[in-house]
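Quick one: sequence plus zinc ion SMILES, need structure tokens.
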Amino acid sequence: MEAVKSYRIQVEAPKDLIEEYFQVKQRALDAIFLHVKVSKKAHLNLKAEDRKKLRDELLKDWRFSKHYVDSAINSVIGLVKSWITLHNMGRAESKPKITKRTVYIKSTLFSFRNGILKISIEPNKRYLEVDLTKYDWIPSDFDRVGGLILAQKELIITVKKSVKPKADKWASFDVNLTNVTSSINGEIKRYDLRELYHIHRTYETKRQRIQKLSKFKPLTSKRLLEKYSKREENRAKDFMHKLTTQIARELKEKNCGAILENLKGIKRRILNDSKDMNRKLSKWNARTFQFMLEYKLKWLNLPTKYVNPKNSSKTCPLCSGSMASYLGRLMKCEECNIILDRDVVAVLNLQMRGEGFPQRALDEIIEGEGLSRNENNNSLCIPT
Ligand SMILES: [Zn+2]
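Reply:
Sure thing.
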């Protein structure tokens, strides 16, 4: 199994390569789009010889390494294919467009030795060198560097290593609007998300103010909206990165894998229900948290498993009876009368569904609720 991490670093990219690569992509697009046949449905009919002809044509006054032309053609084919998919769903614009001035750099175009990344620009005479040891936040325990993406002012670098995730204990997580609740091998712990909620709220207010402007200055307001959305996303992601890095370290110390809610199937309903901002934010939190935690754990050789979250905050983790809202965030079991916080109910159920009920959590609940254990059959004596 392979673990992957990506990092952005600031570099000054060769302007001529960026510009000419962009033009080559434009030319490739014009040529390849002629091979898109549209009857009822669109499809691409590009034969190997067409591709070779195009390649030879594009290479005529190309002074950079030849692989860039191959990478440009591949990237344009990918773009055209996704356009076709959209088109056949009735959702495409009239023609695909190349918008980004980015260069995809295949592994054949660079070498990596002693921490130095050496990217070939012009064959045997011009290189872009990046010393990765200067960036202490990039891990050094990787097996290889994957593909690179070069933009005008930055390089996105992907590092990979092979892993065999394994854990002897498990932690489950329930992500809400204002906190992440976890049961780390039965020990309940909460992580505060109020700062993140505040970030979202602040930008929401800003957006509402800008939208009022849109009647009079549509272009300015569009530009501002984009700017603020990007900033909001960056700040929110930054927060989530710090949190998931911290949690991944804690789990590594305890050699715990993660049990997370399987959110598939919930997706469509939430997207359509876009008016409910808090629900949307909650889902954003859950998805981003899960995504980041999983790949960070994988890098540390720890597994993640997903379990069905259905009724996880409404089922009693002790007796499987159904629980009803009691007071605030508290839930009460209609069968055994135990009262527990709903987030705690959720993580205990997730943990149970993933790995069986942790003894430690059981002991704490018994103590907290003033219950005692029936020595003869290990069942609980519930005070009535
Ligand atoms: Zn119960």
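The chain is about 40% helix and 25% strand. The first helix runs from residue 15 to 33.
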